[in-house]
TrEMBL record:
This is cyclic-guanylate-specific phosphodiesterase. Coiled coil: none annotated. It comes from Marinobacter nitratireducens. The chain holds residues 531 to 809 of 812 of the full protein. Residues 23-277 form the EAL domain. It comes from the Bacteria.
Length: 279
């Protein structure tokens, strides 16, 4: 083996220590975050593209930590996945999201859908299906009001277990969507063998729909393909009015993005719900 220079070692070691220290500190904070009640859900409206009326909300996780401030999911979900902490955290998200939708029904009289993101580690946990079904039944939500958002990457593993879990959830009446559609380099064949209800077109395609003819063609093609397979389509990352005209014209069922609303804390979301028209 090659002899490692002393100076190189001395140069790299402190950096690595710093990184792992930060990681360990975040991990230990994350271990306590559930009992300290530091997690919160924000809700982003999903609207009917034609009317602009609210039909559902996506639950988006936030971690409000006294020393780190508001931590966004991209910063802590990878570590939660690695450590397995995503399993109890994900269970909390499911319970909290179902409960919120039931509360909105009580306070506004409206039955709206609730979408929850599921990460691969959570999905592969043997208790996953019962965790989902428990959250639904203990809150009193209708099964078809819950939609689980699953990324293409997770579906790609193509295992018998994946197919079986999706089938169980579908049989129970829970809705299933493909999140970040178009980013997974995947064969499309899974769409015909798995019981999905919805495709969410990734925001990277939606964002340039007015600037790049290729993106417009892709979005149009995805909408047509989804419809011919009996799936509904949600466009993510809608930020400008011009995009809403395009999406309407192309028959995209639902839309979500900053143009309509940013993700909102529960109370602000309830206000939004009360002041917008019902379908
Ligand atoms: P995602 O599922 O693709 O969620 C959409 C993300 O796009 C959200 O970021 C949302 O705030 C953002 N967004 C919404 N509208 C717009 C827009 O018009 N323009 C742009 N540029 N962005 C928009 P957020 O909340 O930071 O979440 C990031 C990712 O973290 C999510 O991506 C999802 O993969 C993951 N995540 C969030 N909550 C959970 C959770 O409870 N469990 C799991 N496993 N993952 C979660
Ligand atoms: Ca999502
Ligand atoms: Ca289904
Ligand atoms: Ca997405």
């Amino acid at each position: 083996a090659k002899h490692k220079g002393k100076s190189a070692y001395a140069h790299f070691a402190p950096e690595m220590t710093e990184v792992s220290h930060e990681r360990l500190q975040m991990e230990s904070r994350m271990r306590r975050a559930l009992e300290l009640n530091e997690f919160e859900l924000n809700f982003q409206p999903i609207v009917d593209t034609d009317s602009g009326n609210l039909v559902a909300a996506e639950a988006l996780l936030r971690w409000n930590n006294p020393s780190m401030g508001m931590v966004m999911p991209d910063r802590f979900i990878p570590l939660a996945e690695e450590t397995g902490l995503i399993i109890p955290i994900g269970e909390w998200v499911l319970q909290e999201a179902c409960r919120a939708a039931v509360t909105w029904k009580e306070t506004t009289g409206r039955d709206i859908g609730i979408s929850v993101n599921v990460s691969p580690r959570q999905f592969r946990d043997p208790g996953f299906t019962s965790t989902v079904l428990n959250a639904v039944s203990s809150s009193g939500l209708n099964h078809n009001q819950l939609e689980l958002e699953i990324t293409e990457r997770l579906i790609l593993d193509n295992s018998i277990e994946t197919a079986e879990i999706l089938r169980q959830l579908d049989d129970a009446g829970v809705r299933l969507s493909v999140d970040d559609f178009g980013t997974g380099y995947s064969a499309l064949s899974y769409l015909k063998s798995y019981p999905f209800d919805t495709l969410k077109i990734d925001k990277s395609f939606v964002q340039d729909v007015m600037k790049e003819a290729e993106d417009a063609s892709l979005v149009r093609a995805i909408i047509n393909m989804a419809h011919s397979l009996g799936l509904s389509v949600i466009a993510e990352g809608v930020e400008e009015e011009a995009q809403t005209h395009f999406l309407k014209q192309e028959g995209c069922d639902y839309s979500q993005g900053y143009f309509y609303s940013r993700p909102l804390p529960t109370e602000d979301f309830e206000t939004w719900l009360k002041t917008t028209q019902r379908l």
